[in-house]
Structure formats: C-alpha cells, structure tokens
C-alpha cells in the first residue's frame, strides 16, 4: 500500500499552466475546482480521500485521443480524478508547462510509434509538490519546487517519479526552457558536435526554442557562430546572445551568403529545419564537417495544411535512432597516418594482427 503526504498547504490556487513566452492558449479557461479546508494526511493511505485537503478531487487535463500532427484535432480536454502518487512518486501542481514544436510529433505518434491513444499530452512542466509517496519523501517534501520532463504535463496536476524530478530554486518559466530546448542543444553539441575553438558553427532556426541555446553553447566553446532566422528583430536578438553572423533569410539569400562569406564551409551544423535547408547545410559542410540532425520543422505544417509524414527519409531515420552517417576519405586523415601504421606494425609483430594476402594461389590462371 502506498502512503501519501498531503501536508497543510495554504497557497493560493493557481490555474494550471501559466504564461511565459511559450504559455499555452489551449488550456485557457481551465479553472481548478474550489479548494477545501486543509488536513494532514501524512503516511496514511487509508485516509487518502482528499477530504478537507487543499487538493481538489478532480482536475482537467489534455488527452491525445487520435494520432494527428494537428494538435487541436488530436487532443481533448477531460475532467478526471486527481491522481494518487505511488510510493516513489510526487504529485506536482503544475504552474507552467512548455509548449514545443515537438509536441505535434508527440501527438502524432512520430516519436514512439508503439504508443497508442489515449495518452496524456505535454512533456515538460514545473510546479510545486503537493503530495508524495513515502519513499519519495526521503528526498522531497510538500512545497518543494520541481521541474520534470515526463509525459502528461498538460494537466493541472501530474504524477512524476521522484527520481526523474529536478529540484529548482523557483517556479520560473525560464527553467522550463532548459528541460528540452536547452538540454537538446547542450547534449547534442557536447556528444556529437566535437566543437573546437575557432571552428565555425551554423545553427538553423537559431532564434527558436533550442536554436537560441545552440548559439550560446557554440559561442561559449569559442566558435564563430552563424544563425539563420526570418526577421530583423530575430537577427537583433541573435546578435544580443553572441551570434557572430545572423542571417535573415527573408532578406538575404542564405545559399549565396554562405558560399560567399564561408567559402571553406562550416565545421558543424545544428540543423532543425530539414528539406532544402538540410540539403544546403550538407552542401555547406567543410572538410571533416559534422551535421547534427535536430529536427525537420519545415515538414510539420505548410500553407496547405499538414503534409503526410515522410518517415523513410534519411534525416528522420537518423534522428529516430540518434544514429550518424559519416564520410571518410583517407587523405584527409594523414595526421593520424604515422600513429596508425606504427600501431598496426606492432600488432603484426606480436602476432595480434593477421594480414591475409591474396597471392593468387587459388586463381585459375595460377602457374600460367
Ligand atoms: N531531436 C530532439 O531531441 C529535439 C528536441 C527539441 C526540438 N527538436 C526539434 O527542433 C526543431 C525546433 O524546435 P523548437 O522547439 O526550437 O521550435 P520553435 O521554438 O518553434 O522554433 C522553430 C523555428 O523554426 C523556424 N523555421 C524555419 N523554417 C520553418 C518552417 N518551414 N516552419 C516553421 N518554422 C520554421 C522558425 O524560425 P524562423 O522563422 O526564424 O526561421 C521557427 O521559429 C523542431 O523540429 C523540433 O521538433 C528536436
């Protein structure tokens, strides 16, 4: 039997999902049920009837009922019982949730084709702990502020595993931007970018949620950073966060600018747009360049609606597996040549390497 801590909580009821730059309109009009008076239900699962607690018995949430990239078509609002956290869980009253471009990949089942509706929408949130299980109470307590990257965020309350909850110093929407957008840029550039000081990095959709972080992390690594965007206002923002060369592709030709100003190509591309931008990015790579496929937002929606998803393209296949395709041409690696030869000679001398040679012994022409 799980235990629940529902400790006195006189805080003002906050309607779920606040504003911030990326607050969701989809949930406007959601009002939590009236609060009741407060009692302490600590450790007593059999008292867990919410009678008198400040947690309402029911809540609203968005549920994906149909797989579709059209968010409004995919989700519906439901009124359900406020969930009970298990022994190792937290019950979080959401204050802000993040709305990401990736949400439509999620609602359309593109990220995990095995997931079938109905399932809860939204995957990042920040709020306060209002209830928790006994094991979870070894690390958290009611009133703690936490952020999380777990499904079911578009809800007034979400149950989150304590081990997956990130303590935050304040419930600020800025922390939300780090959960997916920031973490994607940080980890992708660190693990796959192999950035070196002085290299050139091209970030597409640079003023977007994750692009803004890629710009800043590449700059911190001592790189020259180029960022694409569609307005002068965004170009100004990119300058303000350290981007060396914002390119407003609405007013200057991206391909021509890259060719003219970066004739040797770019060392790393952090690519979120896909389609013709991806092709241009591949073309613009320098020798030994690296291209990280982050997304393909150009394929999500067009003026004529939601195009069919092309899951069989190379960038999609690579992204779904965090896999890479890398080119190799020996003359580009002569700096590694001496060490490679020396090492192989030694292995051969020690009998650790077999060097099979086809001397033609088995060929029909042998002896002719
Ligand atoms: N791989 C991962 O784990 C991961 C994690 C996070 C995000 N992503 C992906 O990264 C991409 C960006 O996500 P985000 O959250 O940063 O998005 P976002 O904040 O919505 O920014 C996207 C930006 O892309 C630009 N864009 C360029 N061409 C576009 C087009 N045809 N349609 C719409 N936007 C276009 C727009 O900026 P301009 O108008 O200035 O060009 C837009 O503001 C998405 O594909 C997302 O799915 C992937």
TrEMBL record:
<dbReference type="GO" id="GO:0005739">
    <property type="term" value="C:mitochondrion"/>
</dbReference>
<protein>
    <recommendedName>
        <fullName>15-oxoprostaglandin 13-reductase</fullName>
        <ecNumber>1.3.1.48</ecNumber>
    </recommendedName>
</protein>
<dbReference type="GO" id="GO:0047522">
    <property type="term" value="F:15-oxoprostaglandin 13-reductase [NAD(P)+] activity"/>
</dbReference>
<dbReference type="InterPro" id="IPR013154">
    <property type="entry name" value="ADH-like_N"/>
</dbReference>
<dbReference type="InterPro" id="IPR013149">
    <property type="entry name" value="ADH-like_C"/>
</dbReference>
<dbReference type="InterPro" id="IPR051397">
    <property type="entry name" value="Zn-ADH-like_protein"/>
</dbReference>
<dbReference type="Pfam" id="PF08240">
    <property type="entry name" value="ADH_N"/>
</dbReference>
<keyword id="KW-0560">Oxidoreductase</keyword>
<comment type="similarity">
    <text>Belongs to the zinc-containing alcohol dehydrogenase family. Quinone oxidoreductase subfamily.</text>
</comment>
<dbReference type="InterPro" id="IPR020843">
    <property type="entry name" value="ER"/>
</dbReference>
<feature type="domain" description="Enoyl reductase (ER)">
    <location>
        <begin position="70"/>
        <end position="368"/>
    </location>
</feature>
<dbReference type="Pfam" id="PF00107">
    <property type="entry name" value="ADH_zinc_N"/>
</dbReference>
<dbReference type="GO" id="GO:0008270">
    <property type="term" value="F:zinc ion binding"/>
</dbReference>
<dbReference type="InterPro" id="IPR002364">
    <property type="entry name" value="Quin_OxRdtase/zeta-crystal_CS"/>
</dbReference>
<dbReference type="InterPro" id="IPR036291">
    <property type="entry name" value="NAD(P)-bd_dom_sf"/>
</dbReference>
<dbReference type="InterPro" id="IPR011032">
    <property type="entry name" value="GroES-like_sf"/>
</dbReference>
């Amino acid at each position: 039997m799980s235990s629940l801590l529902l400790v006195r909580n006189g805080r003002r009821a906050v309607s779920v999902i606040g504003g911030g730059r990326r607050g969701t309109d989809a949930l406007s009009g959601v009002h939590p049920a009236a609060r009741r008076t407060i009692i302490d239900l600590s450790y007593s699962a059999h008292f867990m009837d919410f009678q008198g607690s400040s947690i309402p018995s029911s809540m609203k949430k968005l549920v994906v009922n149909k797989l579709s990239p059209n968010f409004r078509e995919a989700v519906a609002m439901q009124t359900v019982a406020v969930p009970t956290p298990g022994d190792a869980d937290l019950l979080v009253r959401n204050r802000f949730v993040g709305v990401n471009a990736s949400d439509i990949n999620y609602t359309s089942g593109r990220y995990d084709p095995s997931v079938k509706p109905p399932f809860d929408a939204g995957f990042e949130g920040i709020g306060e702990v209002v209830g928790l299980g006994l094991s979870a109470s070894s690390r958290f307590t009611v009133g703690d502020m936490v952020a999380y990257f777990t499904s079911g965020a578009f809800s007034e309350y979400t149950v989150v595993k304590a081990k997956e909850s990130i303590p935050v110093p304040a419930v600020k929407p800025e922390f939300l931007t780090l959960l997916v957008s920031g973490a994607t840029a940080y980890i992708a550039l660190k693990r796959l970018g192999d950035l070196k000081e002085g290299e050139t990095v091209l970030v597409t959709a640079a003023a977007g949620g994750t692009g803004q972080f890629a710009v800043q992390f590449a700059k911190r690594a001592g790189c020259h950073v180029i960022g694409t965007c569609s307005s002068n206002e965004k170009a100004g923002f990119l300058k303000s966060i350290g981007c060396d060369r914002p390119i407003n592709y609405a007013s200057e030709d991206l391909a021509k600018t890259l060719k003219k100003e970066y004739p040797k190509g770019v060392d790393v591309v952090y690519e979120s747009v896909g389609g013709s931008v991806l092709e241009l990015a591949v073309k613009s790579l320098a020798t030994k360049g690296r291209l990280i496929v982050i997304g393909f937002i150009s394929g999500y929606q067009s003026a004529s609606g939601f195009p069919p998803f092309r899951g069989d393209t190379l960038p999609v296949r690579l992204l779904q597996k965090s896999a890479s395709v890398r080119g190799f041409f020996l003359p580009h690696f002569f700096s590694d040549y001496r060490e490679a030869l020396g090492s192989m000679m030694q292995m051969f001398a020690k009998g650790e390497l077999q060097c099979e040679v086809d001397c033609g012994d088995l060929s029909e022409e042998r002896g002719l």
